[in-house]
Amino acid sequence: MSCANIQVSETPLMLYALRRADDALILGHRLSEWCGHAPILEEDMALSNIALDLIGQARELYGYAAKSEGRDNDEDKLAYLRDVRQYRNLLLVEQPNGDFAHTMVRQFFYSAFADLYWREMMSSRDATLAAIAAKSEKESAYHLRHASEWIIRLGDGTDESHRRVQAAIDDLWAFTGEMFAVDDGERALIHAGVAIDPGTLRGRWLTTLSDVIDEATLSLPQNDWMQQGGRAGRHSEHLGHLLSELQSMQRTFPGLTW
Amino acid sequence: MVTVLDANAELRQRAWDAAASVVDPEIPVLTIADLGVLRDVVLDGDRVDVAITPTYSGCPAMNLIALEIELALERAGFRHPKVRTVLSPAWTTDWMSEDGRSKLRAYGIAPPQASGSRRALFGEQTVACPQCGSDKTELLSEFGSTSCKGLWRCKTCREPFDYFKCH
After folding, report:
1. Measured by CB atoms within 10 angstroms of the end CB, which terminus of chain B is less buried, N or C?
2. How close does chain B come to A67, measured CA to CA in Å?
């Protein structure tokens, strides 16, 4: 393995698989940054467990991407040897952990979406994607419940925890629109029954959010301006720093194995 | 012809038994057959093809389990063992054997319950303490020492215990 960037075929199916795999890997990596730093031991274990689930989902999706591409890329090359512009994850998942409220709100927004998304994807005409969806859906249900409980505890907690979680909701809201957007390539996959249209999930996603946010005595922002770019490879500055850590071993010692 | 079939069936059973003897590295009282992780063993000439399914996507025990299966088959005299991972149908705790559930309880881990209510966002569930049998227990954390377990505490005997989450 060399440490130079690999080339990836940018077919609709490849981009589709990379987008989902990159979401899971980047969010999993962010959560793994909490390992040893969470406020209590149980939470340290919970965040590491969720990170592990997400990295597992990413591995399956990268494996699928590499196989469907049919070149000599594999899951490791796809994770370690692509640069920022080649990553296709949502801007939401690369946002820094911030305080615990920011981490939980980011997780809540994503898990509420992923839970619905993977459940629908179980009916994909692509057998491998349907199988990956069936596994991911079970895991997402736990992730969503965990995040929901925290949002309620923090929102309906002290003045300070309420203020922090509301600030996190306001900060991260503009990154949620991207979850429901698709480009022409993905629209063709949706038409072919390989993918599902995430736009159709937005109503149910909002209902999940509202139920929890109401109980937490919080409120959702009214503004509907949304920042996009991650799906097309245009990222915030945070992703480069994240990748420099995630990829440092392979970039420094090409082909390194444990 | 009948003898050949019988010989094949016997050989396959030997291969199955060898693979089925592999235990979960995190819960060594359970074999991968008890867990329902072992899905299929196929003989093809002198090759053995073993299919396993992961419990959770990121379960780090899968690599070790695959290695242990290959070693067990080699030791049982099978050459060229090959382990592949199948994702569909997705693993569920419903596949765990009754024997496996009893072994888990004896080991101090509460076995998984029926998976019907897992979707309830804030559902109440009752898990009996594997130490004293009391059902006055409380959830400490849904995420425990491994992907497949949550952490509970018994309010009767005050012992904390692991619960194998239904999935």
Report:
1. N
2. 15
Please write the tens of the pLDDT for every residue from A119-141: 999 999 999 999 999 999 999 99
A 130-169: CB under 8 A from B: 130-132, 134-136, 138-139, 141-142, 144-146, 148-149
pLDDT confidence of residue B90: 85
Residue type, B105: R
pLDDT tens sequence across B131-141: 999 999 999 98
Chain A (183-202) residues lying within 8 Å, Cβ to Cβ, of chain B:
none
User: Could A56 and B144 be called an inter-chain contact, meaning their C-beta atoms sit closer than 8 Å?
Assistant: no
Please list every residue in chain B whose beta carbon sits closer than 8 Å to the beta carbon of residue A28. 58
- Predicted structure pTM score: 0.89
- Please name the residue that has the structure tokens 């274990």: A45
Instruction: Considering chain B, tell me which residue range(s) the CATH 3.30.300.130 domain(s) occupy.
Output: 2-91
Helix (H) or strand (E) holding B30: none
What's the pLDDT tens digit per position in A171-182? 999 999 999 999
Query: Would you call A138 and B118 a contact, using CB atoms and an 8 Å cutoff?
Result: yes
More confident site: A247 or B124: A247
Separation of alpha carbons A239 and A87, rounded Å: 9
User: Is residue A53 classed as helix, strand or coil in its secondary structure?
Assistant: helix
Q: What are phi and psi of A72, to 5 degrees?
A: -95, 25
Q: Between chains, do B90 and A135 touch, taking CB under 8 Å as contact?
A: yes
CATH for B2-91 is 3.30.300.130
Residue in A45, A135, A136 nearest the CB of B145: A45
Per-residue pLDDT tens for B29-69? Answer: 999 999 999 999 999 887 899 999 988 877 888 889 999 99
Q: CA of A117 to nearest chain B CA: how many angstroms apart?
A: 15
With 80 as the cut, is the pLDDT of residue A245 above it? yes
Structure tokens at B64: 């070790």
Total length of chain B: 167
Which residues of B are less than 8 Å from A131 in CB distance?
87-90
CA distances from B55 to A38, A115, A124, B125, B139 (A): 26, 18, 22, 21, 21
**CA–CA dist A137, A202 (Å, integer):** 17
Q: A105 exposed, middle or buried (CB, 10 Å; 0-12, 13-18, 19+)?
A: buried
